[in-house]
Amino acid sequence: MDGFATICASGPPFMLTSVLGGSPQPGGAWSDPNATGALVGGVLQPALLSGGTYSFTYTVNAAGCTDEATVTVVLNTAPNAGTSTAITVCSTDPPFTMYQELGGSPGGGGAWTSPAGAQMNGVFDPSTDPPGIYTYTVVGDPPCLNETATLLITVSQAPNAGLDGSAEVCSPSAPINLFEILEGNPGVGGTWVGPSPIGNGIYIPGTSDIGVYTYIVQGTGPCLADSASVTVTGSSAVDAGVNATVVSCTTSPPFDLLEALNGSPDAGGSWVGPTPPSNGVFDPASMIPGIYTYTVAGTAPCPDASATVTVVLNPAPNAGTDGSATYCATDPAFPLLQHLGGSPSPAGTWVFNSLPHGPIFVPGTDGPGEYVYTVQGASPCGTATATVTVSQVACLVNTPVNLGIPNVTE
């Protein structure tokens, strides 16, 4: 009797007579009207057929009598989930369709399950999805069984060099760590390249060149290296010199305050003080002593720089002006100082004929001549001198006047 069979393309070979109904006699012959080539000696090879419906005829001859029966075979195509494979992706790779990563030629329309057994849409996002074994299942039309393939996904963590940063530096100044200038959360262990070699990312203002310094963190395959940069700009520090003290005399000539500073001050600064100095010049004759401050304006990020000159003025000594005196041998002693002109200081000393002399002239004991008065000034002031020229004159003799004898009239 005619038979009917639904088979799977991936099924094993089988005898077509096993599908016929009734009790077919052996020894008959099978014919393949479609010439599929899948029938060999009554054994059907499903793998040699493509999906579809086929008819195979079984003929038996006995004493001139012939009988035929037909077997109709419906062949269902076996599902193809491809072949299992393993891949490694980078955590920063874009999402991708896992179906495309399977080996072989997987059929579409299958379903994916995650390592935890949850259904998913078949798109893997390396930034959020967990690594592991993902299973692809294609449902077979009975009697074909379902077919599965797996995709083992390993996720390599992408390197993180952080985000670009910038730094303004003043040269010279304390070293800075460029790693701390990077934004984000840079990973450690990277290397730096830039205009100057910098060990461990340490930038030394005044020694290292300004410019762009790039931090590079190598990736583990398939992740590429990541990089971020620090742009270093800046300017040179200004120098106002080193504080100094100047001791001058009220009679000294004007002097340049800038030249009085120690160190190597930059020109072009400004001065302030008890008396505003013109062009930085101090005139002892007209200006007030005290602290004079020199300031040089810095260019950001460098601050202004200042230094001071403390001016101390010592008064010039005053010996007065030359004078003269005359005396009579019988005159009383007198101070020489009162014969000087001006307002001489009383703290000086007297010299006569190159020998020290006291401040009092004693007529009859001291001789005539030039008495030199010297007042010593405090450094850097020198000495001041004035001379009293003493001359001797003849003494006046008082002769009694003869008034005669009074005329008494009684």
What is the terminal separation in angstroms? 222 Å
Q: List low-pLDDT spans.
A: none
Helix and strand composition category: mainly beta
Report the top-level CATH class of the largest domain. Answer: Mainly Beta
| The number of domains | 5
Q: Going across the biggest sheet, name each strand in turn.
A: 8-14-13-10-11
Number of E-state strands: 33
Tell me the overall shape. Answer: rod-shaped
Radius of gyration (CA) equals 62 Å
The CATH topology of the largest domain is Immunoglobulin-like
Mean pLDDT: 93
Number of helices: 1
CATH architecture of the largest domain: Sandwich
Which percent band covers the strand fraction? Answer: 35-45%
Overview of the structural elements:
- The chain has 410 residues and is mainly β.
- It folds into 5 domains: 3-76, Immunoglobulin-like; 85-156, Immunoglobulins (Immunoglobulin-like, Sandwich); 165-236, Immunoglobulin-like (Sandwich); 244-314, Immunoglobulin-like, CATH 2.60.40; 323-392, Immunoglobulin-like.
- The protein is built from 1 helix and 33 strands.
- The protein has a 5-stranded mixed beta sheet with strand order 8-14-13-10-11, with no helix packed on it. A 5-stranded mixed beta sheet has the order 27-33-32-29-30, with no helix packed on it.
- The longest helix has 4 residues, at 257-260.
- The chain is rod-shaped.
- The mean pLDDT is 93.
